[in-house]
């Protein structure tokens, strides 16, 4: 399987904006101003479970998840960072890295399915992507 056969699930593409690529994963920003939220998607075709990755790729995914967690901490200074790979709605393997605040509207519950997504204003989204990109480059 090659990276060239990788295609982002249309549901992920519809709700996110690309930040950039790490060695294994495409980094996306969930376009929801209520929660700072990154998504890592391994650029491998037909992968729905972590066990579908090679051992080396699974180790890379964990390293990149740690990097994304550090970026989230620097980017938003959250009270907590939640990391999860559920895949109940979108089967394509992807890892959520979500900054959570005690003051956020879903706290302490999950963000999934909580009310309606509120897209970022264009300028705020562009600034956030630029900042996130710089933090990933420096990591």
From TrEMBL:
Coiled-coil intervals: none
Ranges where the HIT domain occurs: 38-107
InterPro entries, A to Z: HIT-like, HIT-like_sf, HIT_Hint
Domain of life: Bacteria
Signal peptide start and end residues: none
SUPFAM superfamilies per UniProt: HIT-like
Protein name as it appears in the record: HIT domain-containing protein
Organism field: Methylobacterium brachiatum
């Amino acid at each position: 399987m090659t990276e060239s056969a990788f295609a982002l699930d249309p549901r992920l593409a519809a709700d996110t904006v690309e930040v950039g690529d790490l060695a294994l994963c495409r980094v996306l920003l969930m376009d929801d101003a209520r929660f700072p939220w990154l998504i890592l998607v391994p650029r491998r075709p037909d992968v729905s479970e972590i066990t579908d990755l090679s051992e080396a790729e699974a180790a890379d995914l964990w390293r990149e998840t740690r990097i994304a967690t550090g970026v989230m901490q620097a980017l938003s200074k959250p009270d907590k960072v939640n990391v999860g790979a559920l895949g109940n709605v979108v089967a394509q393997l992807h890892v959520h890295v979500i900054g959570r605040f005690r003051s956020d509207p879903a706290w302490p519950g999950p963000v999934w399915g909580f009310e309606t997504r509120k897209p970022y204003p264009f300028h705020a989204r562009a600034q956030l992507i630029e900042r996130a990109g710089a933090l990933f480059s420096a990591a």
